[in-house]
Write a structure and sequence with these properties.
By secondary structure, this protein is α/β, with parallel strands linked by helices. The protein has 6 helices and 5 strands, in the order E-H-E-H-E-H-E-H-E-H-H. It has a 5-stranded parallel beta sheet, sandwiched between helices. Helices cover about 40% and strands about 20% of the residues. The chain has one domain: HUPs (Rossmann fold). The chain is globular and about 45 Å long. Bound molecules: coenzyme A (COA).
Length: about 160
């Protein structure tokens, strides 16, 4: 088991600068971060899993410390398969806490070997979510400082 490998799971529909902030902070702690898009057919997504992975690739193309992947099923099982014993998540505000606390404890119950680590993003990203970015873009607002350039391009393609 590689102690310095973390899984950063999420919907990433699409990835935002808030996600990038967490990944970049995580890279100061972990040797490798596997950014993994959840395959969740029951959640209506704007981007396909492949599109989301491509957008993440475009940000971390040349960084061997970041692996882009997708998963379905239990997160702890996936983490074990990847040889990772840490799940990385971001905590944007107190409102995230209850859900994250419940998830961390359930994951611990399912597999006590797997630890959850939480990082706080920069304050300028604490209000960000993928939905709010999609809404602003769909209404013609400027999202250039909220998402990576490749994501802005893809969002504009979807909405214009
Ligand atoms: N910056 C910006 N936005 C952020 C963010 C950050 N740092 N962190 C979270 N968000 C936003 C996301 O963009 C997303 O926004 P949206 O709802 O507008 O799309 C929202 O917060 C939810 O975050 P996300 O990371 O996508 O979480 P999720 O709740 O969709 O998925 C998983 C969380 C994948 C970790 C969880 O569903 C999971 O583990 N599933 C596997 C099944 C399992 O093992 N279940 C048992 C464990 S309890």
């Amino acid at each position: 088991m590689n102690k310095k490998k973390a899984i950063y799971p999420g919907s990433f529909d699409p990835p935002t600068n808030g996600h990038i902030d967490i990944i970049n902070r995580g890279l100061t702690i972990f040797d490798t971060i596997v950014v993994s898009v959840i395959v969740n057919p029951s959640k209506d997504a704007l981007f396909s899993v492949e599109e989301r992975k491509e957008m993440l690739h475009s940000v971390y193309n040349s960084n061997p410390a970041v692996e882009i992947d997708s998963f379905e099923g239990l997160l702890v099982d996936y983490a074990s398969q990847k040889g990772a014993n840490t799940i990385l998540r971001g905590l944007r505000a107190v409102s995230d806490f209850e859900y994250e606390f419940q998830m961390a404890l359930m994951n611990r119950k399912l597999n006590p070997e797997i630890k959850s680590v939480y990082l706080m993003p920069s304050p300028e990203f604490t209000f960000l979510s993928s939905s709010i970015v999609k809404e602003v873009c769909s209404l013609g607002g400027d999202i250039s400082c909220l998402v990576p350039t490749a994501v802005e391009k893809q969002l504009k393609k979807k909405f214009l």
